[in-house]
Amino acid sequence: MQKKGYILKGRIIDGTLAAPIERGAVVVDGERIAWVGELDALPHDHLSRGYQVIDLPDRSILPGLIDAHTHISFGESRSEEENALYTPVEFRTAKALYYSKKILQAGVTSAFDAATAYNIGQAVRDAIDTGMFDGPRFTISGKQLTTHQGLEDSFPNNMEFPPGQSAVLIKTRDDLVEAIRFQVKDEVDAIKVSGSNDNLITPDALGSSAFTFEEFCIIANETHRLGRICSVHARSRDSALDSARAGFDNLFHASYIDDAGIEACLENKCVITPTLTLLVNLIDAKQSNAGASGSSAFSREVEAATVNLRRAYKAGVPLLAGSESGWSPVPYGQWHAREMELFVDLLGMSPIEAIHANTLAVTRLLPRYGHEVGKIEAGRLADLLVVPGNPAKDIRILQRPRSFDYIFKGGTPIDRTPQAPRVRKWYERQKTFLNGVYEFDEETGRGRLTL
Ligand SMILES: [Zn+2]
């Protein structure tokens, strides 16, 4: 009788910094990897177990990608208003399940979700983990803790903080501890803090930090006491420095980190997840010159990040690859592998280092199951990609998931059938009844729409 399993013969890139094994084999038994190594060293008893043997000439076998920065609850929002105000939570959750399958079909078998709206992230994670829907293995951060100086407190002071915003507004120090305990009760895996503002929302709002050093310490201590990890949105120099000094596990962006911040990261073993894809996509899409968001601010930030993050990486701070999928510049299922190309082109990494940054390196953000994924190693879950060619030579191969031969999650090839495009409901985006002003032109005696 055939046992459920596979012997995959091809080039192996295992998720570590090791050179590829050019003629390798991976044995998959049930949901786990049973053996990996040089093909010539494959023990004979594996061959007699009835596994399906698959020859993969000029193919590479890698761990499934781990995206270190997604927002599964954001639904490809184009604005803060769309994200915070529109679409009932129930429909948002259904959308998130639809999008989860797209992420998996892009070869992303695990993901770190870096702030949720409502408790959508936890529901999606659990719906996937209990076998009801297809998607990556998610690690979920709660709503971002923010202040009036942080990202997400976007609306005027004369209105209430919207419950649909993916943040909770912190007013006093006691609120900090309460918010963390509240979220842990709601089954988050991680605490997320909005440590600075963001050019996306407020132009050049990079000067200061949204929390004091003492407040960052309170957050880190309480989060760690409750067995969770904490990350921070830290575009400004001060927010990167103070959160790293306070012992945060992960800094998002850190574009303006300086030597003192780098030193603090090394001392406290903080990692940085730059998430350059969002900025570069925004610049490329030329969508950034409307309203408050100037494209020059994004370009300046990419320039600064290129210098500062190179220095951080050289000094020994691990960099993790995340896409920020969930906002409209980074739609689900399409850009998850671009960060690796940017790490190579902008930060000077080798393709093998970039693949490591998008696989094994991210497992430190996955406290529940990080030891079970991210590397092709006996005993770990068989979350694997089989791709044409050699991504150690051309990293962009990984951006074309439809060309992959296989995507395995837990030893089973996933359903690759593309989902039908969904239809947008009228209540999702905005309540604009005319996109422009219908002006009267006295010359012609007619109306004219101006934008
Ligand atoms: Zn984000």
TrEMBL record:
Query: Any transmembrane segments, and where?
Result: none
The Amidohydrolase-related domain is annotated at 61-412
| Keyword Hydrolase annotated | yes
Gene3D superfamilies per record: Metal-dependent hydrolases, Urease, subunit C, domain 1
The answer, when asked if Metal-binding is one of the entry's keywords, is yes
* Pfam families reported in the protein's UniProt record: Amidohydro_1, HUTI_composite_bact
Q: Which UniProt keywords apply?
A: Hydrolase, Metal-binding, Zinc
Q: Which domain of life is it from?
A: Bacteria
Single annotated GO MF: metal ion binding
Domain Aminodeoxyfutalosine deaminase/Imidazolonepropionase-like composite residue range list: 24-46
Coiled coil: which residue ranges?
none
Family annotation (PANTHER family): ALPHA-D-RIBOSE 1-METHYLPHOSPHONATE 5-TRIPHOSPHATE DIPHOSPHATASE
State what protein this is by name: Amidohydrolase
